Amino acid sequence: MLGAESAADMTLLGIGIDIFDNAGLSYAQVTDVALDVVLQSGRSNETVVNLIWDNLVVGPIPQDLLNQLTGDLARGAFSQVELAVVASELVQELGVVDLDQLTLVGVEYTPVA
Q1: What is the mean pLDDT of the chain?
Q2: Helix, strand, coil share (%) of the chain residues, nearest 5
Q3: What is the greatest pairwise CA distance in the chain?
Q4: How far is CA 79 from CA 2, 26, 34, 54, 90, in A?
Q5: How far apart are CA 34 and CA 19, in angstroms?
Q6: d(Cα 78, Cα 1) in Å, to the nearest integer?
Q7: CA–CA separation, 34 vs 40, rounded Å?
Q8: Residue 18: its pLDDT value, please?
Q9: How far apart are CA 98 and CA 57, in angstroms?
Q10: Contact 96, 46 (CB under 8 A)
């Protein structure tokens, strides 16, 4: 959600880990909170689609695809959160993040006080 550069932010990672460990929120609820935090008052179907696209693909989203996805969101075919969750699952399936290696070596983060 926050992009590759945020993966190196140990404080941000600590906050995320704390939310998953202690807040009792589902993955979808955490995704919803993350969309709010990242996009703030600018959260719209278009900004959500652009955010997801920017985190998955290099280059701008084709206008016809943007129109299709924002139209699907507007019609309720799926929610912003559902789209973001599917995108994160795609990242896992594509191996963008080496989860096997991550489970072996872990990740450094700053614990929340």
Answers
A1: 81
A2: 70, 0, 30
A3: 46
A4: 19, 16, 14, 18, 17
A5: 11
A6: 18
A7: 9
A8: 83
A9: 18
A10: no
Task: For residue 28, name the pLDDT band (cuts at 50, 70, 90).
Answer: very high
Helix-helix angle 63-75:80-94, to 10 degrees: 130
Residues found in the chain: 113
**DSSP state, residue 95:** T
- Tell me the three state secondary structure of residue 88: helix
Give the list of residues 6+ apart from residue 97 with CB closer than 8 angstroms, or none.
91
| pLDDT computed for residue 14 by the predictor | 78
Side chain identity at residue 16, one-letter code? G
Cα R_g (the chain), whole angstroms: 15
Can you tell me which residue has the tokens 């939310």?
A: 19
Amino acid at 84: A
Q: What is the pLDDT of residues 31-73, one digit of tens each?
A: 898 899 889 889 999 999 999 998 888 789 999 999 999 999 9
